[in-house]
Amino acid sequence: MKIGDKFVYPMHGAGEITGIEENEVGGVVSSYYVFRLPMGNMKLMLPVDKVAEAGLRELISPAQVEKVVEVLQAESEPVQGSWNKRFHTNLDRLKSGNILDAAAIARNLSRQNSKKKISSGEKRLLDLSRQLVISELVCVCDKSPEEVTAWIDELIGVSSSEE
Fold first, then answer.
1. What are the pLDDT digits (tens) for 12-45?
2. What per-residue string of b and e applies to 57-95 under the rule 16 or more CB within 10 Å gives b?
3. Three-class SS of residue 42?
4. How far is CA 83 from CA 3, 112, 130, 156, in A?
């Protein structure tokens, strides 16, 4: 990994390595990747020796965008169990870092919310799943967050104003 490389950080989204810094924590000096996430204008520091554990992955290829589109357009999964059980199941799926899982969660919760308002916990998952999908598609498709957001809403068949 080097400065300028773009990666996806699970539960945070896509971003770029903007630097490598040395920091002292508990008397130990370690090297950290400085990871800038454009969504939310966030800066994360990840110890160089913890990259494998963090689950960083490369961005999807432009060819894989079509699979994301298919997931966003597909039929919603049936709503099962209590909101609490769904919340934990969806949270585990998001932690995997898989964009197809994030897209399915965004689709399901967006449609569910447009019919009947979802719980505040599921609303946070909806916002997070959308952020994860949007951040990666912004990087891969070279579009603005606003363009990608409108595109996703169109594919899912809901508008942001419904959420």
1. 899 999 999 998 888 989 999 999 987 777 888 9
2. eebbeeeeeeebeebbeeeeeeeeeeeeebbeebbebbe
3. strand
4. 41, 12, 19, 21
